[in-house]
Amino acid sequence: MSQVVLLNATYEPLGGVTFRHAIGMLVRGVAIVEEQDGVLTFGPFPRPRVIRLVRFVATTWLYKPAGFSKPGVLARDRRTCAFCGGYATTVDHLRPKSQGGANSWLNCVAACKACNGRKANRTPHGAGMKRLHCTPYVPRVIDLINAA
Fold first, then answer.
1. Best label site of 5, 6, 22, 97, fewest CB within 10 Å?
2. C-alpha neighbours within 13 Å on the C-beta side of residue 44
3. What's the pTM value of the predicted model, to 2 decimals?
4. What value does the mean pLDDT take over residues 101-121?
């Protein structure tokens, strides 16, 4: 199903909603169409590509630290391998779990399969990988939305 971009009343991006949800918001009058999809219509409404809320919604939750997840690590690192800079498909622990490492934002980085296999169950220093291409950090929710 197609996604429609949702903006706050201040034009701040809030994410995306389904086409069906967007039409419901237009019908209830809580949003207006900012950008339409060509000349297509859906009843009396132009087919929305971007909608904007009529009233401001407080979004303090967007600026809080995001909960840890492996897809979140890939989004945070923009699918770039921390070891070689190539395309990352997996998540690697800097300090392996067998050595007491945790599933956390500061201990996990995106990695390609080759580097993940080369590092194996060792620290990057122990595997001869001297420097990382990125520094792990705890992202905010908005950082992950913008990275996607």
1. 97
2. 5
3. 0.70
4. 95
